[in-house]
Each structure stands twice: as structure tokens, then as C-alpha cells.
Amino acid sequence: MRPQRERLLEAAVRIVAEKGYAATTIGDLTREASISRTTFYELYPDKEACFLAAFDSVVEVLMRRIVRAYEAEEHWPERARAGLRALLETLAEEPALARLAMVDISSVGPAAQRRHRVAMQRLTPLFDEGRDFAPRGHRLPANTSRMAVGGVTGLIADDLVAGRTEQLPELLGDLLFAVLVPYVGPHAAVEEIRLGEGRPQPGAADGPGPATAGRPPAGSP
Amino acid sequence: MPAIRSPHESGGASRGELGGLIERERLPSGREDLPEPIVAHSQRERILVAMADSCANKGFGATTIADIVRPAGVSRATFYELFEDKEDCFQAAMELSLADAMERVVGAFSPDKPWATLVRDSAAAFLDLLASRPAFARMAMVEAPASGQRASEMHAAGKRVLLTLLDRGREEAIEAAIPASAGRAAIAGAESLIVGQILAGNAERLRELLPDVVYITIVPYLGQEEALRHSREVEA
Prior knowledge:
Distance between the termini of chain A: 51 Å
Number of strands of chain A: 0
Strand content of chain A: under 5%
Distance between the termini of chain B: 37 Å
Oligomer: heterodimer
Number of helices of chain A: 10
Shape of chain B: elongated
Radius of gyration of chain B: 19 Å
């Protein structure tokens, strides 16, 4: 039998997705996890602490998958694309987990909102490599990658709320644009979406050639 | 519903600013020369300000009726004459915060302004308003999306108005094939930066985010060079 803590966190993800955070009681959690109330209070002081722990475990799963996909690619922006695809596919496969991580978390209170932000900001390094692609001699605003992450999570949350969980992978092009446009501008970002859809522009290089957003200008790190 | 008017919006500190508003508008008890509706109106506003303040300081859940009536200078009986309960009061304060924020943004609108100027002016007005009233900033940006049907619908409606204004940039866009979601993503990006600043307790310094907000909202439409130029200009 799996550890009680693990059962409880999985139960929390399921129940909160079903009933929403506010309506979930500790009784629901102990019943679903087949543990006693005493055990619950040995593990967590209250419902919020349990929910936050469930959130943390969800974030770990998501981050592991994203980072693995990201590191499998050698160059940016392919790396960003791979990371975003892994995020969307995981969320689409695990609707309960998706809701908890991207929607319900914001209704729990300020502590949870802070936790959510910290977790999402772990995505910024995926995008900040794009700084090397900025027009020569220009420095992008300091918060560019934070805003890119905000755009990504905002679009995902909109789709989840609208019940389009299964179709999330179709959002890849939109997310890619949101992430790339501050770094490479609208033309190159649109071009990058086309490449991802397997519709290279006439005359584009065959095979695994460099994407149109291109490599960093010569001389940049 | 009348928005809470504060003639000293440029004032800095959070609680002081709201406290000042309360002090200034406090009516001496037993003023019989004032007609009843005016007294009630002022009481209502003081209660809403106190509600926003308390939410900012200890959160909605921990806020008690005593936390509201004491700084508002009204009796419990008056509170219950004006509002059904704590939730009802919270909703009213929330709606006021959102209505005020939207009014500010839409107020910067003028059909003669070039689109990029409009974006810059609206963003500046919006950030200045939030910075001048941190408790309301928190309500409109942090609590509203997460607190019940009515407030989250209003928040969503406000964002749609912003999106409509922003997406007029498509008429001037340098790239024809930008995705339909480009404006929504830009607004979500700016929003998350603003919310982060509020949650970190730095609402009064929101104006510092203007160059970032201007960049992210202009870049999908006019491209990097123009977005950087506008961003640098508002920084100056």
C-alpha cells in the first residue's frame, strides 16, 4: 500500500478538481484517501496546507517533464518549443492536475497565489535564453521573461476555464508566439510557428536546419 | 454607483492615503443639517474603504465586521442597514475598485490619439491609479479574479475592454499573421507582472513597471524597434 501522504495528495488533486477548493472538506479528503482524521492532522495542520503540498507535488511533475523536453533540444527557440509542448501535453493528459495547478490555486488565498507565482517563475530560464536574440545593441526590459511566463499561463488558464483541456496541445502555436515575440519580434515569431506546424516557407532550409528566428547574432554569447 | 473619489491620488503611502480619505470624509455625528441620503452615502463609502483596507492587511477571510465599522466610524447597526453581510460589502467594494480602474483606462481613450500613444497613456493611468490606492489595487487585481462569480465576471469584462482597445493595434500591425490570442497574451503578461508587484507589497511602486508593460503590449503589433522606443520614452 502506498504511503498515506501520497494517497492523500492524490485524493486532494482529484477532489478539488471535482468540487472546487472551497467546497472540499477534510472529511472528503480522508474518505477518498482512506485515512483517519487523526492521520490527516498528523500530516497537515489544515486543508490549505494539504492543498499547497498537493500543488507542490504537481509542480514537481510538470517541471520534471518540461525540463527533460527542454534539455533534449540543443538550441533555443526549439528548446522553448519542446518545453511548452511537454507542458501542454502533460496538462491535457491530466485534467485534474491541470485544474489544480493552473486554476484552483488562485482561489485559495494569498499564500497559494504566491506559491503559484514562484512555481511559474521557474519557467523563466526556458525563455530567457531568448535575450541573445534581441536586436543588436538593444536591451530588452528587465521583466521580459516574467511577462512571457504570464502570457503562457494566462492563455492556458483561459482554455482550462473554457473547458478546452483536451485541446490544450493545439495552443502550442499561440504560446510560442507569446514567448517569442518579445525576444525576436512578430515576423520571426510567426515564422517559428509555421516551422513548428511543418509548413516551412518556400525556400526554407530542408532538414534540421536552423529555425528562422535564427541563431544569436554573431558575437553575442 | 459612484466611484470613491480621492482628490489626492498622487499621495504615496498606502494606509495613510486611505486613512486620510476616511478622516477627511468623516462627518461629525449628529449633523442634522445634512439630508439623510448624503449621510448614508458617505457612510457607505467609508465602509467600503475600510473593507478594502482590511482585506489588504489581513485578507477577506480574517476580516471581521468590527475591523470594518471601527475605522469607518459607523455602528454595527448602520453597517447592517447598508449591507446584508460581510460578503455583500466585499462585493460592493470589489465592484467599486474595478469600476474605478476601468474608468481610468477608458478615460485615457480618445479617437484622435495614435494607437501607441493611447496604449502608453492608458497603461500609465492604470498603474498610477493602482499605485495611489494599494488596498483597492489588491482588490481589483488579486482578489477579484478569485472571489466568486460576480467579481470574477467583472474582472473578466474589464479585461475584455482592455483587449478591445489593445487589439486596435492590428490595424497598424507590421505582421499580418499574428495569432488571434496575441493581445490576450500581452495583457496576461502585463497583469502577472502587476499582480506580482502587489503581492510583494510594492503596489505603491507600480509605476516603475510602465516601461515593461508598454513594451509587452506594443511589441506584438509594431515590432521590437518601435516597442523599445516607446518603452524608453516612458522610462524617461
